[in-house]
Amino acid sequence: MKIAVLLSAGRHSVSGRPAPVPVELQALRLAVDLAAQCGGQSGGDVTGLHAGPELGPLTDALGHGLAHLIHLRGEGTADPAPALATALAAGGYDLILAGRAGQGGWDAGLLPYTLARALGLPIIADAAGLAPGEAPGTLGVEQALARGARRRLVVRLPALVTVHSAAPAPLPFAFAGMRRGRVETREAPPAPAPAPDVEERAYRPRPKLIAKAATGASALERLRAATEAASGGGRLLVDPAPEEAAREILAHLRALGLPAGR
Amino acid sequence: MSRPRKDPRAARAAHLVAGGARPRFDLAAMPATTGRLRRDPRAEERLALVPGTLRRRLDRAQRVAVVSAAPNALAAPVDAAPRLVVIAQPAYLVAVVPDAPGGRLSAHDRQLFGAARMLADEGGGAVLAFVEQPGEELGQAGADRVLALPVSGYDPEAKALALHAALAALDLRHVLFPESADGGDLARRLAALSGEPFFAGTESLSPKAVTRAARGRRVEQRRIPPRLISLAPDAVAPHAGTLHEALPVEFSFPQPTSGALLSAQFIPADPAKVSLAEADFVVSAGNGVSDLNAFRALAAVLGATPGASRMLCDAGLMPRAAQVGASGTVLDARVYFALGIAGAPQHLQGVAKCEQVIAVNTDLHAAMIERAGLAIVADAQKVMPALLALLQQERAS
Lengths: 262, 397
Ligand SMILES: Cc1cc2nc3c(=O)[nH]c(=O)nc-3n(C[C@H](O)[C@H](O)[C@H](O)COP(=O)(O)OP(=O)(O)OC[C@H]3O[C@@H](n4cnc5c(N)ncnc54)[C@H](O)[C@@H]3O)c2cc1C
Ligand SMILES: Nc1ncnc2c1ncn2[C@@H]1O[C@H](COP(=O)(O)O)[C@@H](O)[C@H]1O
Description:
The structure holds two protein chains of two kinds.
Chain A: E1 2-6, E2 9-11, E3 18-20, H1 22-42, E4 45-52, H2 60-63, E5 68-73, H3 80-91, E6 95-99, H4 111-119, E7 123-132, E8 138-144, E9 150-156, E10 159-163, H5 175-180, E11 182-187, E12 199-202, H6 219-227, E13 235-238, H7 242-255
Parallel strand pairs in A: 1-4, 1-6, 4-5, 5-11, 6-10, 7-10
Antiparallel strand pairs in A: 2-3, 7-8, 8-9
Chain B: H1 8-13, E1 16-17, E2 24-25, H2 41-48, H3 61-80, E3 84-85, E4 93-96, H4 107-121, E5 126-131, H5 137-141, E6 145-148, H6 156-169, E7 172-178, H7 181-194, E8 198-202, E9 204-205, E10 210-214, E11 219-223, E12 228-231, E13 243-244, E14 247-248, E15 261-267, E16 281-285, H8 292-302, E17 305-308, H9 310-314, E18 335-339, H10 345-351, E19 356-361, H11 367-371, E20 374-377, H12 380-396
Parallel strand pairs in B: 3-13, 4-5, 4-7, 5-6, 6-14, 7-12, 8-12, 16-17, 16-18, 18-19, 19-20
Antiparallel strand pairs in B: 1-2, 9-10, 10-11
Helix pairs in contact in B: 6-7, 8-12
The complex binds flavin-adenine dinucleotide and adenosine monophosphate.
Adenosine monophosphate is lined by residues 6-8, 21, 24, 49-52, 80, 84, 98-99, 101-102, 105-112 of chain A.
């Protein structure tokens, strides 16, 4: 199975220095594990792709288990989508993995979708685990949802899958792996820069919405709003028999739609 | 500040009692107040006086309640019957695509409607909701029109194609999505399909500008609201106050085609493994629980994530990761079941976001009992085995 992993130029979340994006290294790990599982059938190989002016710290990805990294060199302001689309179409990959969103660029997570559209591939979002499907040419994807829930999907290959940060941690860094890995540089055709229709300024964290604390209320009222949310129509049972209490609790839980005990 | 000069003759004339041969003045009667209301410090003090104490005590906090009583009394009838707003001829449409898991709007979906109302009310537009199963709560949430999407099961590509057709045919000025797992995915699919400008994870929104974080949360991007917007949670207040008609509308969607997705199966979270901050249902023990084995068994059988108050974590009876409260985990759960917890403010802060609380406590006056939707004054050591026995009996039958 031929797998491509898209690696973007990221910035470290704390120091702000150039660094690989963690979720893309997690994608790389999923790719390496999947290739090892499929290794017997078709000889797995994993290729990394990056479009941008320079690789910088992305060579670290070689130390995290990548054997072959293709660098599509182009201008920094250019849109990476056309260069990546031609390289991916030429490579004939069965599976393309990307991060759910970058960290250091626009961070909108839109690139995998535009690529999937350009290549005519189906796209699956937020994978936390990958496994070869039962039928040949299929892939099992475990999709991460909110509150720890999962969705198990089976897709026909080739496909593009974005990876969620709930996926297993990246493989540990090995210096020898980085020395062994092969970097191939290709010149990307010049692409137009996307029109900058946004205005940028330093980030200012905005206060999140607070439940109901009325602005201008006294401190006492704000504390009340923070601690006593409204729970409509409170029912009070004083000294019921334990069995009756148990029945009441269970009926209440069921009314709230919890499958308690089922 | 300049004050109008007092005219003693006019002030006296205001007390004149009409009728009678001789002019009579009733100086005790208060003339009708004109202009600004005067404070009466003595009356305020009389109201704040706490009766029944030997020493003179003033409860000034009460004053707030007395002053705010008047506007509350005016606001009450408004609450009783929210005004129905009908927008017959909308100038434009603002579409909302809520997640609505299981047909019920989540808190994030309601905030989405709040944002859509803000964009629509600016220029006499209407809010159009795209939902899979139309429910009754949409009018209250702020939807003027409702369109049912012809999608069943998990098929985001078909949903995106249907939305693309609607985007092309109806004049939608904005389409709003929640920045959640499914909503964010759908928004990006539609953005790639239509090539429309897309603003992801909007953190503040007004009719003039939207902002979001970029470059590893170091830069704030700002622009006028584009056509496709996804909204981060807790960024905009939900719509409240007026009722909207939620009129069903018809639209002929194109026939869906089968995609590359071969099967999809939902797997609920394993409550023992999910972290407390993510859990949907939490059972928590406090100092009133001495039989911790029964508690752990109960949490496992109910399929809930176990939590604890600080007293138990300090005593080493529960792991620190299980602590609920200000210095532990602030829950995002829907249902919280508290056993033997007094409900100290530090603990209640951790439960503030929970919709439903069930409490079992021996003390009728515990704060937890006051907070709970179902409060049971009983011994937790007796309720837990009874609940376990009931569940076992149900399973056997
Ligand atoms: C800075 C600071 C931070 C704190 N942060 C936290 C925090 O994050 N989380 C937290 O939980 N606490 C926190 N606390 C501690 C908090 O103030 C309370 O002390 C603590 O929450 C009390 O825990 P409790 O309700 O389990 O115990 P108690 O206050 O001892 O209450 C026990 C309750 O159980 C009832 N009970 C007794 N026997 C039974 C029985 N047989 N059946 C049923 N009910 C029974 C009693 O009526 C009583 O209401 C903090 C305190 C400070 C000073
Ligand atoms: N210049 C790039 N080269 C290769 N892959 C990229 C590039 N930019 C983004 N990607 C991939 O697309 C994902 C989403 O990026 P973004 O749309 O920038 O948030 C990233 O996690 C990467 O996997």
